[in-house]
Amino acid sequence: LFRFQLRHLWGANLLLFLLPGSFLFPPLSIGLGWLIFIMMTKWKNTGSPFWRDTARFWLKLFIVTFGIGVATGLTLEFQFGTNWADYSRFVGDIFGAPLAAEGIFSFFLESTFLGVLIFAWNRASTKTLWFASLMMAVGATLSAFWIIVANSWMQTPAGFEIQGGRAVLTDFWAALFNPTTMVRYLHTTIAAITTGAFFMMGISAWYLLKKRHVQFAAQSLRVALIAAFLTSLVQVGFGHWHGVMIVKLQPEKLAAMEGHFDTTTRAPLKLFGIPDEKNERFIVSIEMPPLLSVLAHGRIDGEVKGLKDFPKEDRPPVTLPFFSFHIMVVIGFSFVFFTAAGMYLLWKKTLPDSPLFLKLAVSAIPAPMLANQLGWITAEVGRQPWAVYHVIRTKDAVSQVVSAGEVLFSLILFGLVYSLLFVVWIHVMRKTIKAGPGEGAKQAKEAAA
After folding, report:
1. What are the tens digits of pLDDT across the range 167-191?
2. Which of 91, 103, 165, 301 is most buried, by the most CB atoms less than 10 A from its CB?
3. First to last CA, the chain
């Protein structure tokens, strides 16, 4: 039992899909990239040294995050040949293309123009640096697209046939734009911008609380707050769209996310509960009927399938997806209310002098990162027991020659290495933030102009 759980469940979700480094830093770099581009645009349009130095300060934090993200993401590529050999053989014809495209078309684009910003900052023209910042943000966002293409194909596979015991690509465009590619890509990208915005907002709030670099912090906070408010609102719509797609294409995942055991019409939405998977019931729950039917089908009498309608061997776990999904939703809605309050303070012109909001903004820096991880857990654990949905099971995707002890050792080793890299990231970030922005960012009058 230990061997099965370690290799087929925890190995599947923690080792391949939930590496903290591989989904902690990329969303932050994507979000920061677009916010830096906004500031570079302000510099190009105004010619103000204030925006030049403001953009450059955030670029320093982007560079640190990008570097650590590269280091933590590399291990994922090697695992396909070590711990997931059977999976690689089965889907290599399909899976290799988007991963190669991510490296060739996206990573190189992002890293090349990041190099321009680093090494040509004092040599290139303002327009050149502005264009480089745009390409850097576009490259980071395109990188997410190819990764999402690969993962979405695992969720809703399309454009292939099984030939000789392997998945063979028959329709490139159907595989590329499989049924959930775009909704998952937009959902993930918006979450990344929210992550970058909360990061910038929290650091700016810290400066304001310390009464340091006040004008720089106030302007950065303003840019980040507006971005966080807009993306938080938009995310509600994309989240609902994603949920409707899951209802149609992965009904057992929805049942696990909502802890829905029995097929019913007028299905209630569980606001809170403690599932009892063994007895297929809830120990306690707070429900709102028939809200789940309304959200899933747009009508009160919509039928929502329960887990009991599916064979036990095809059912995903309930407890982890249920709590991950519900906590993620709570965090997401809290972003809407929090940023709306910030927008009100901004409108009243009292935002820099609102210590409660500023303290909460500092504390909220990790919240989007946590929400990202919870969303990933919901998506990947909710897909179990399939590595590729209804095509190949996770237990058939692992390397048969890799023992449970070796998997455990690799998990521990990765955990130690990633922990060390995280400490390095925190140390460098802390040092850079304490140093603060350049002299030009102190020119408040130019910023106001």
Report:
1. 898 998 998 899 999 999 999 999 9
2. 91
3. 67
